[in-house]
Amino acid sequence: MAPSLTDILEEARLSARALLDYGEHFFNPTVRLGVTGLSRAGKTVFITALVHGLTRGGRFPVFEPFATGRIARAHLAPQPDDAVPRFDYENHVRTLIEGRRWPNSTVDISELRLGIDYQRPSGADRTLTLDIVDYPGEWLLDLPLLNKSYEQWSRESLALSQAAPRAHLAAEWHAHLTTLNAQDREDEQATLTAARLFTDYLRACRNERFAMSLLPPGRFLMPGSLAGSPALTFAPLDVPAEGAAPEASLWAMMVRRYEAYKDVVVRPFFRDHFARLDRQIVLVDALGAFNSGPEALHDLEAALAGILDCFRIGRSTILSTLFRPRIDRILFAATKADHLHHVSHDRLEAVLRRAVSGAVAKAEQTGAEIDVVALSAVRATREALVARGRDKLPSILGTPAPGESANGEMFDGDTEVATFPGDLPADPEELFNGAGFRGLSSTPSDKSDFRFLRFRPPLLEHDGAGEPALPHIRLDRALQFLIGDRLQ
Ligand SMILES: Nc1nc2c(ncn2[C@@H]2O[C@H](COP(=O)(O)OP(=O)(O)O)[C@@H](O)[C@H]2O)c(=O)[nH]1
Ligand SMILES: [Mg+2]
User: Fold this and answer.
1) Least confident window among 307-316, 369-378, 379-388
2) What number of H helices and E strands is found in the chain?
3) Is any ligand 1 atom within 6 A of the Cβ of residue 317?
4) Fewer Cβ within 10 Å of end Cβ, the chain: N or C?
5) Whose CA is closest to atom 23 on ligand 1?
6) Contact 128/116 with Cβ under 8 angstroms?
């Protein structure tokens, strides 16, 4: 595709930005770590636990520079980017530790800067600046739109919405769509209704029972300050992929707004945030997909492929080779592993590895090293073997959040219970192949194969000497992969 004027202007801006970053980097080595994942994947909890662990002496045996004592100190530094909200670390820590509640959900980008004073293996003292950028995965899944015409996007979105279980959720929007003729004169009211029904459909796909992942445009579900603006008021039409819109038609109006969405939302995100990242962790709530059923798992697989595509597209869209995105390590992390007994942790990793494998094979041009881990940023459970008849079941102990229920029992948020959440199969293929498993999207909760309760954050034992460390699972492995080599 020939570069458009917008692309060329974008390129110039990007280059100027990269030069600025480069200058700063020269004097002060910096890693910009992107933390992303769909809403509720665990981004806020992950960053809070990571910063708490680094600044308050967490237990990180697998994070080499930390375990060997080469890191002298990690401290919060003033937030560098004037236009980006600061990650509300102090509040999140207080909620987690003192309130034993999970932080409120966040829907925007935020950022936090850490200074890490360390000693090189040669003995020299250095400081690494770690900028942690928390941004919604929904925004990332928008990047492929940059390479798609309105007509292509319409066709794809329609096709996706016609398969189960989406078709059922899209019924109302589909019914409205049949009343529209793309060639008719442009019509604000019809467009408003179409956009509203389309957004309702996207929202329904996202709820706990269905847990669908692949839902661009991302800003429709989290509009922020753009709510109600024309750039967010459009929807797919049933138009041919190669067609051209007649002047002043409904179709032309949709095209204009779709392009505005790219200009106002997608390109600035690419330029100001995505293109500046060095390392990336993608958090994945695989357990949410297990809860829901095989369709959600396949949808998640498609979303992960979409995400890997973004890293590839990121490299090929922008013309210059000098200033193209520089992400050289990507970690996919299944979060909330504390909901499973440790015998299933490796299996959870295997499931995630299987879910990204197809995409990884295709995405070789990302030029990035890719790894997979199952982790729990904050471990809310302990393990026990619970006798049931003659068997001893590997179970987990935790305090279910108030309002959670299982087997007809409602929990008050104070009582600890032992639960058996379900075992993951030794062979991940069993979850992906046709037979599948039963989840909430098709079965009542007492009949589904997996049921994960929401637990409260753990009660920490104070042993006198300051604040205790938050327990975790494999957070140190994630750190080692993401920044271990930059502390050499
Ligand atoms: N048990 C457990 N639950 C977690 C963990 N991380 C996240 N969660 C749960 O997932 C929810 C969403 O996490 P959050 O970090 O707010 O997700 P975000 O939307 O990606 O920022 C939290 O409210 C917790 O219920 C974890 O490490 N262990
Ligand atoms: Mg968040």
Assistant:
1) 307-316
2) 16, 12
3) no
4) N
5) 102
6) yes
Alpha carbons 95 and 93: distance in angstroms, whole number: 5
pTM, two decimal places: 0.89
Query: Which of 45, 140, 472 to mutate for ligand 1's pocket (most ligand atoms within 8 Å of CB)?
Result: 45
Q: Which residue has the higher pLDDT, 245 or 209?
A: 245
Q: Residue 396 in contact with residue 441, Cβ under 8 Å?
A: no
pLDDT value for 464: 62
Assign 77 to helix, strand or coil: strand
Shortest-distance atom of ligand 1 to CA 103: 16
Q: CA-CA distances (angstroms) from residue 278 to 130, 164, 475?
A: 10, 38, 19
69 CB-side CA count, 13 A: 1
On the CB side of 51, CA atoms within 13 Å amount to 28
In the reported structure, the alpha carbon of residue 229 is separated from the centroid of ligand 1 by a whole-number distance in angstroms of 31
Residues, CB within 5 angstroms of ligand 2 (ion): 43-44, 106
What element of type H or E holds 307? Answer: helix 294-317
Backbone angles phi, psi at 334, to 5 degrees: -80, 120
Of 247, 204, 199, 208, nearest in space to 227 by CA: 199
Cα 145 to Cα 267: distance, rounded to the nearest angstrom: 10
Q: Quick check: CB of 335 below 6 Å from ligand 1?
A: yes
pLDDT at 326 over 80: no
Radius of gyration over every alpha carbon of the chain, rounded to an integer in angstroms: 24
What one-character DSSP code corresponds to residue 411?
P
Asked if residues 167 and 204 have their Cβ atoms less than 8 Å apart, the reply is no
Res 23 pLDDT > 80:
no
- CA nearest neighbour of 298 among 488, 146, 406, 163: 163
- In the reported structure, the alpha carbon of residue 43 is separated from the centroid of ligand 2 by a whole-number distance in angstroms of 5
Rounded to 5 degrees, φ, ψ at 400 are -60, 145
HEC states along 118-142? Answer: EECCCCCEEEEEEEEEECCHHHHCC
The separation between the first and the last C-alpha atoms of the chain, rounded to the nearest angstrom, is 42
Q: Is 454 in the pocket of ligand 1 (CB under 6 A)?
A: yes
- The rounded distance, in Å, linking the Cα atoms of 485 and 488 is 6
The pLDDT of residue 205: 87
Dihedrals phi, psi of 67, to nearest 5 degrees? -65, -35
pLDDT tens track for 420-465? 877 788 888 888 875 666 777 767 766 776 778 889 999 987 766 6
Residue 25 Cβ contacting ligand 1 at under 6 Å: no
pLDDT band at 323 (very low <50, low <70, confident <90, very high): very low
Residue 7, pLDDT > 50, answer yes
Q: What angle do CA 133, 137, 141 make, to 5 degrees?
A: 125
Cβ proximity of 378 and 471 under 8 Å: yes
Q: Is 41 in the pocket of ligand 1 (CB under 6 A)?
A: yes
- Please report, as a single letter, which amino acid is at residue 21: D
